[in-house]
Structure formats: structure tokens, C-alpha cells
Amino acid sequence: MKRTNTIIAAALFSMLLTGCGSVAEESMDSAGSSIETQAGTEKTTEAEKPADAETEKPTEAETEKLTEAATEKPTEAATEKPTETETAKATEETDEAAAETSAAESNEVFALNGPMGRYQGPEEFGNASFAASFSKEDLVKQDDGTLALTVMIYRYELFSGDDITALKKGDVIWCLGQDVVVDTVETREDGAVVVNGGIENGGRYFKTDDGSVYFESGMSDVKSYYEIGENTYTLSENFVLTDSSDLDHPTTYTAEEFLALDHGAAGFINSNTIVKTENDVITAIERVYIP
User: How far apart are CA 195 and CA 167, in angstroms?
Assistant: First the structure.
């Protein structure tokens, strides 16, 4: 009886061990399957994620290098100063460009009358006051007893006051047919305008009596005259010559006295003689002192 119980106990123990083995194997199989599944999931997740090399942030040292590279100063070649030759060339090009611009903006100024303006002939001086020149031989007595005088008529150019006062560097002003390129302009207190340093420096000098028109003036304030042409006039019965060529002895003369007068060293020239006419007859002549 006792032996039978022992055998039964042994058999039960064996069965117990067999069942535990199966359970252990199943547990192991389940665990292994779980591990494989986890490993597969991890691989899939890692594959989906960007590579570490692509997403990893730069190190602090690499960041500093990038910053230095971005902010480093230009090379010496990029910042070096231009050579003296390059500077001179650049200056020359700038001056040429400025000169071209100035030329493009320059103005030409012409006289209101004169050789390049409206023509004036002797026939226009029948009622006028004008500069003239003549010699003693030009005054003759005619058959009817009247005196006739042949004179050379002179005029001076008149320029618009607006044109003269607006002159600037680069402008061109035409004086007696000659073009004068303006380099410098100076306006004086008396209203006179000096171009290119004035007469003393080869320039021009313009004066005005009322500001509306200007005329070119030469040495001793003598106007720049041009010839109009010759014309012959009869002296009126009440003709008067006023002679101030000698400041200490100004004198007046009648027509007959004028006929006998010695013209002297001063003569009658365009810078000191003014003839006045009315209805194509000379009514008066004035001779002034010229220093």
C-alpha cells in the first residue's frame, strides 16, 4: 500500500514537471516573440526618423567657426585703397562727365542788335543819336550855301539784362561776332558784370545805365563799337557843336565856326563824338573828353 502511494506521487510529480515545461516554453516563446516585435518596431521607428548626421545640431566649436566665417572682415585685396593712377583716372572721368553735363546745359547769348542781331543801316539814323567819326575834309559847303557832313556811323551792341545777369560757367556770349566762353562771372556793386576776369585778363566787361540792357565796355569806359556805314547829312540852320574835349575850356560853335575849326589832336572819333539828327538833318554834335 505504501509502495503504491509512492508510485502515484512520482507520476503526479512527473506530470507536474511536464506541464510546467510547456508553460515555461510558451512563456519563453511569448517573450521571444515580444522581443522580436519590439525590435522590429524600433527598427521601423529608427528608419522613419531622419539620420542622426542630418539632424544633429552643430557643436559649439562649429557654430563659432560659422559665425567667424560670416563676420570676418573683407580681405586686404577687397579693401585696399585705389592707386594714385586709378584716382587720377577716376577724377578725370568725373571732370569730363561734369564738363559734358555743363556743356549740355550751357546757353548762348546774343545781342539784341548788332552784327549777329537785327541789322541797322544808315537809313535808320535819320532821327537818332549815335557815335560817329569824320575828318575836317568830310565837312563841305554846298552850292546852296548849306554845310554837308559825311560821317561814319557806329553802334554798340545791347544785351538783355536778364541774359547778362544770368550768365554762368559754360555759357557762350557772342560779342561783335566772336564767341566768348564764360569761365568766371563776377557782379559788382555798381551792377557791372565782369566775365573771365575783365579786359585786363583777356575777358569782357559789361555795364548798364538802367539795368534793363547791358553793353560791352572797353578801356576808359569806351563802348565796343561796330560800324554801321557812311551817310551824308545837311547841318541845320540852328546847328550847335558843344566841345568839351578840353575840360578847362568847354566851347560851343555855330555851323560856320565849325567849318573853320581845327580838329586838334583829339579829332572827332567814335569814342568822343555824338551826332544828333532830326528828319535827316544834323542838329547838334557833342565832343567829350576822353582820358
Answer: 9
Q: For residue 239, how many other CB atoms are within 10 A of its CB?
A: 21
Q: Has this prediction a pTM greater than 0.90?
A: no
pLDDT, one tens digit per residue, over 96-142 is 665 555 555 789 999 988 766 566 788 889 999 999 999 999 999 99
Contact (CB, 8 A) for 111 and 174: yes
- Count, in order, helices (H) and strands (E) of the chain: 7, 15
Residues 215 and 159 sit within 8 Å (Cβ to Cβ): yes
Contacts of 172 (CB under 8 A, 6+ apart): 106, 107, 108, 109, 179, 180, 181, 182
Q: Identify which of 16, 182, 178, 43 has the alpha carbon closest to the alpha carbon of residue 110.
A: 178
How does pLDDT run across 8-62, given as a tens digit for each residue? Answer: 555 545 554 444 444 444 444 444 444 444 444 444 444 444 444 444 555 666 6
**Which of 182, 174, 190 lies closest to 224 in space, CA to CA?**
174
C-alpha torsion sign, points 164, 170, 175, 177? negative
Q: What angle do CA 214, 155, 123 make, to 5 degrees?
A: 130
56 vs 224, residue with greater confidence: 224
| pLDDT exceeds 80 at position 231 | yes
3-state secondary structure of 79: helix
**Residue ranges with strand state E in 73-138:** 108-109, 129-133
